[in-house]
Inverse folding.
């Protein structure tokens, strides 16, 4: 979303409440970028449907903000809300952060990293320990960027944290505790040997059209929404191998309905920070990722698309069905399952 409003809503449970900072120390950071015209209005240029990269970085809607922090551990929930830009976040001090959660929730084990690659719509929760810094210290969250972004003079900066002398409540155990063991999940408990099928699909630009598995959303519409790129049964476990053989673009691929586990990236283990339940995967240039997932909870048809929104809008989206045979009526069709009812004034 470029010109509209964006926000986060947070889900809590007893496990994360016992492990991680809460309240004012549990902070949403929605990061985006924009370009502005001389009159302050938003400008839009999608570079021939390749993407939009603004020269102003916004956090929670403010350009390059500064946040005052106590000398304690904070939990930050980072959402990349840029419509095209990916980030490679790091601290100006070069100190590591601790990643504790990914798109689908808590990781099994926390991971310390000095930087992480963050595509559109991906969510990462990180702990930053400000107790090691003296009051009056400024720490910046910076952007080292990635291949095939368009960068400007100040897109290497995101925001800053100023450490204050405000007293810390040391009765709160989370003030200086970084947990190691976190929580299991269905996605992360899966084993590759459970997979009934492996599907291979490519993400690419084909004769000017953005495609997933050789399909565009136009083709789905023209099929009266019958065309699918996969048709697992309810509770099936599958491996999806997504290939990006292009050196010119990266694709954050969002698979609806499920959380998945990243098995490998170019035959190697996933990056430490992505070892948690995911629903968006960064498929970088000349990368092949293998994803393990279980299609549970609901029958119906669900989307898979690139979250670079100019790619999605020009037609990099397809659908898969779960628990449906050809010709079956979708019980969760958004048009018929819950029709709109208009109330009189």
């Amino acid at each position: 979303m470029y010109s509209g409003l964006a926000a986060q809503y947070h889900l809590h449970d007893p496990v994360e409440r016992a492990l991680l900072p809460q309240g004012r120390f549990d902070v949403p950071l929605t990061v985006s970028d924009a370009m502005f015209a001389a009159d302050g209005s938003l400008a839009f240029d999608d570079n021939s449907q390749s993407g939009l990269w603004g020269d102003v970085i916004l956090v929670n809607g403010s350009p390059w903000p500064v946040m005052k922090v106590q000398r304690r551990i904070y939990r930050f929930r980072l959402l990349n809300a840029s419509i095209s830009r990916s980030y490679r976040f790091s601290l100006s001090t070069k100190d590591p952060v601790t990643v504790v959660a990914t798109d689908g929730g808590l990781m099994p084990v926390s991971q310390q990293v000095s930087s992480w690659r963050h595509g559109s719509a991906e969510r990462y929760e990180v702990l930053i320990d400000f107790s090691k810094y003296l009051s009056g210290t400024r720490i910046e969250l910076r952007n080292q960027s990635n291949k095939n972004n368009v960068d400007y003079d100040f897109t290497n900066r995101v925001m800053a944290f100023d450490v204050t002398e405000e007293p810390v409540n040391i009765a709160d155990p989370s003030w200086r505790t970084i947990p190691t063991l976190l929580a299991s999940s269905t996605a992360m408990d899966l084993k590759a040997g459970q997979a009934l099928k492996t599907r291979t699909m490519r993400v690419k630009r084909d004769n000017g059209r953005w495609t997933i598995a050789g399909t565009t959303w136009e083709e789905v519409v023209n099929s009266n929404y019958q065309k699918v790129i996969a048709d697992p049964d309810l509770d099936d476990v599958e491996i999806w191998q997504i290939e990006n053989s292009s050196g010119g673009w990266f694709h954050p691929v969002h698979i609806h309905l499920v959380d998945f586990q990243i098995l490998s990236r170019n035959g190697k283990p996933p990056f430490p920070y992505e070892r948690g339940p995911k629903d968006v995967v960064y498929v970088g240039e000349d990368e092949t990722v293998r994803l393990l997932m279980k299609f549970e909870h609901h029958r119906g048809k669900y989307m898979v698309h690139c979250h670079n929104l100019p790619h999605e809008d020009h037609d990099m989206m397809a659908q898969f069905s779960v628990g449906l045979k050809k010709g079956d009526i979708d019980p969760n069709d958004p048009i018929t399952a819950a029709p709109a009812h208009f109330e009189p004034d």
Q: What stands out?
A: Helices lie at 14-19, 186-189, 217-222, 309-313. The chain has a mean pLDDT of 95. The chain has two domains: 14-175, 186-322. The two ends are 31 Å apart (CA to CA).
